[in-house]
Predict the structure.
Amino acid sequence: MMRMSTSRGIFISFEGIDGCGKSTQVKLLVEYLNQSGNETTMVREPGGTKISEEIRDILLNRHLDNICDRTEALLMTGSRSQLTNEIILPYLKKGLNVVADRYYDSTLAYQGGGRELDLEWLIKLNHFATYNLDPNITFFIDIDPKEAQKRKNQEEDRIERAGIDLQARVRNAYIELAQRFRERYVSIDGNASVNTIHEKIINEIKMKQLIK
């Protein structure tokens, strides 16, 4: 059930395992929305504000392998809370749209499914951290972890280095989340072409009458 919706700006989030192609789709969607007269800004997680970027540096540091799972979850939600308070909510209240490259579902998938922390506890933690803000729609770009591994062409961060088994658990968690929150989730085959995925995203947004 939606906990909160905005009557002005539209909040769209993208989710998926590392290497699924969601960041490409985020950029394409933001460009499309702005060109079509729907003023939109993009945010990423973790990060997006000075404080959140500092937390990101800690979370993804390849040399900090001893960060425990609960600390990871708390740092993620702390970064998210700052981003929500400082950027997302003010933009939405101004009537501007926000597209997020990850939001709280990432914690439910990575720290819940991947790190096997208690999912219900993580949901409550994120209720608090995000001021009860839900995306209006969430696009889950689904792809097999082995295929995603082939696409990577840069040095892996701390979480990516955890390996394909973690990514497999994360993917399974996303599939379960897509069922649990099916009123806002749209699952998309990440094996399709970039243009095909982009067109599907636009069609879904138009069908739900989220943009003019």
Observations:
- The chain has a mean pLDDT of 92.
